[in-house]
Amino acid sequence: MTAPGLVPLFTLLADLASRLAERYPNAPISRDTVQVYTELTLWDRYGITDESGPAIVTSRADVAAALEDLPLDGTQAEYAARIRLAMRGVAI
Questions:
Q1: Number of neighbouring beta carbons within 10 Å of residue 21
Q2: Span 29-40, mean pLDDT?
C-alpha cells in the first residue's frame, strides 16, 4: 500500500529503468549515474518545487533501498534489466 501523496515504488523503478535503458544504454553504469537518474525520475513525478518534502525524501530512500543489493556493473541497459527483474521478485 502506498501512503497518500507517494508515487508507488514500482512506478518509480519502472521509470528509472526506462530512463537508464533509453539514454546512453551502452554507457557504463555508475553510482553517480544512478543517483542523477533517480533524481530526474523523482522530479518528473513530484516536480522540483520541494526537494526536501516528506514524499520525495521517502521515495528517494525507498528507491535506494530497492537498488541496494543490485550489482553495479556493466552498462546502463544491463542495470535497467536488473532493476526490471528485481521488480518481478527475481533474486539477482
A1: 18
A2: 96
| Model confidence, pTM | 0.88
Residue 31: partners with Cβ closer than 8 Å, 6 or more residues away: 72
- Return all residues near 76 (Cβ < 8 A) that are at least 6 apart: 20, 21, 23, 24, 25, 26, 27, 28, 29, 33
Contact in structure between 92 and 85 (CB atoms under 8 Å): yes
Residue 89 has pLDDT above 90, yes or no: no
CB-CB contact of 82 with 71 (8 Å) = yes
51-89 burial code (b ≥16 CB/10 A, e <16): eeeebbeebbebbeebbeeeeeeebbbbbbbbbeebeee
Measured over the CA atoms of residue 29, residue 9, residue 40 and residue 55, the dihedral's sign is negative
One-letter amino acid at 24 equals Y
Percent of the chain with pLDDT strictly greater than 90: 75
